[in-house]
Amino acid sequence: MGTEESNELVYHYTSLDAFMSIANSRTFRFGDARAMNDYTEIDHNINLLLNLEKQKPELMKKLNISNEGFNKGIENIKFFKKHIENHYIHIMSFSKNPDSLSQWRGYADNGTGICFSVNLSALRHCLNSTYRIAGDCVYKQEQLNTEAQNLLKLASTFDSDEREFEVRRNFLNDFIAFITTGKNEAFKDEDEVRLVSLIEKLPPPQNVEFINSNGFIKSYLEVSFPINIIDTVILGPCCKFTTEDPIFNNMLDNLFFNKKLYELGADTNPYRPKVLSSKATFR
Questions:
Q1: By Cβ atoms counted within 10 A, which residue in 6, 39, 195, 225 is the most buried?
Q2: Is there a domain that residue 23 lies in?
Q3: 278: buried, middle or exposed (CB in 10 Å: 19+, 13-18, 0-12)?
């Protein structure tokens, strides 16, 4: 699922107000995984795994799994499904595409907003063990089916009550990556990369906040990051100012070199990202 160390840049499309808030607060907001734009995806991916049980004879042969191993794999999938139901799952989305017209329209105030890039490896090093880079989203059903079968084969190799922590943790990581990166093919032009957080629902749940969004209650997390991992800021095709606009540049100077934070030692060096404009011809 593309979770290896990478130096690539990934891009986040957002409104100008949200960008200013992100830069001011030095925090990314992770949203509720079950309240994404495709509201069916998590359940769809879990059902893909559970429905493997109906293909038992052919999959035992195809994956070279014994009857005992197959039953153990399905038992483990059900065990980990129940396990994650006791956790909050939150997602932060990026794209591998720096100038996507559909994303300017959908996520950046119809092209008047901002897209900014971060270095994926630098971002990885900002995250603690609660967060993980789940990887590139998968949009093809055939590939999702193959990955589901591979997970079943892995699940057939250990007992659900096994005390080998490393084996269970590796499977959990793969399980989380699978259920959070499988997406409907209609979203494929987003070319999405996801970061995922898994937090147990303890009373009170640590760091989890709630917001009213158009009448729906959604949970979210705010995660701190150093400002210098933002590499580039790209102005949307309908922005009402240019990269040379003096007020915009004054704002960037203030956002990326916060005097108060500098005096506290949080911002140790003045920093400013590159600024570019979208090449999309859209208005």
A1: 195
A2: yes
A3: buried
208, HSE (Cβ side, Cα atoms, 13 Å): 20
Q: Give me the number of domains the chain comprises.
A: 1
Q: Which residues pair with 115 in a beta bridge?
A: 13, 234
pLDDT at 1 exceeding the cut of 90:
no
pLDDT of the residue at 101 = 93
Does 242 fall in a domain?
yes
CA distance 126 to 147: 28
Domain of residue 51: give its range: 9-277
**Across-strand partners of 135?**
194
282 falls within a domain: no
- CB environment 207-236: b (16+ within 10 A), e (fewer): ebeeeeeeeeeebbbebebebbbbeebbbb
Of 116, 97, 95, 88, the residue nearest 183 (C-alpha): 95
Helices 141-155 and 67-84: crossing angle in degrees, nearest 10, is 110
Rg (CA), the chain: 21
Whether 153 maps to a domain, the answer reads: yes
Model pTM score: 0.86
Confidence of residue 123 (pLDDT cuts 50, 70, 90): confident
Using alpha carbons, select from 95, 87, 77 the residue that is nearest to residue 32. 87
Say how far apart CA 120 and CA 12 lie, in whole Å.
12
pLDDT in tens, 214-259: 888 888 988 888 888 899 999 999 999 999 999 999 999 888 876 6
Q: Residue 161: its pLDDT value, please?
A: 63
Place of tokens 């980990």: 80
SS3 of 172, please? helix
Residue showing tokens 């593309």: 2
Reported as type and span, the H/E element at residue 87 is: strand 87-95
